[in-house]
Amino acid sequence: MRKIIPVIGLLLYLSAPSAWALRCGSLLVDIGDHKFEVLRKCGEPAFADSRIELRYVKLQGTGMEIGQYVPVMIDEWTYDFGSNRFVQLLRFENSRLVGIESLGYGR
């Protein structure tokens, strides 16, 4: 019996979606997905916001600290799946999903 419990725990851990994934119905949204894929799987967000950030990027191989500022398009989508689930904030950079954050129970 002592040997079976760790095996069951390991199987449950391996079969669970990653902490960086979101379930929309029977479909799974994961880090790296394109905005189009998320929209297809989850539908329209309850709220969406966009902005552009300038990020400093070092140029490689120069031997000196040389870089430039590049624009990064940031989109944040909020999904409210109801009072039984947490509201989810999805953050995209240049149309790719880079973060999923739980905000609290929905309405």
List keywords for this structure.
19% helix; elongated; 2 helices; alpha+beta; 4-stranded antiparallel beta sheet; two-stranded antiparallel ribbon; 107 residues
Question: What is the secondary structure topology, with strand pairs?
Answer:
Layout: H1 4-15, E1 21-24, E2 27-30, H2 35-42, E3 47-58, E4 67-79, E5 86-93, E6 96-105
3D structure, described in words:
The chain is an alpha+beta fold. The protein has helices at residues 4-15, 35-42, and strands spanning 21-24, 27-30, 47-58, 67-79, 86-93, 96-105. It has one domain (4-105). 9% of the residues are buried.
Largest sheet: 4 strands, antiparallel
Calculate the mean pLDDT score and round it.
Answer: 85
Any idea what the shape is? elongated
Derived from helix and strand composition plus strand pairing, the structural class reads alpha+beta
The side-by-side strand order for the widest beta sheet comes to 3-4-5-6
Indicate the multimeric state. Answer: single chain
Number of strands: 6
Radius of gyration: 19 Å
Task: Give a short summary of the structure.
With 107 residues, the protein is an alpha+beta fold. Helices cover 19% and strands 48% of the residues.
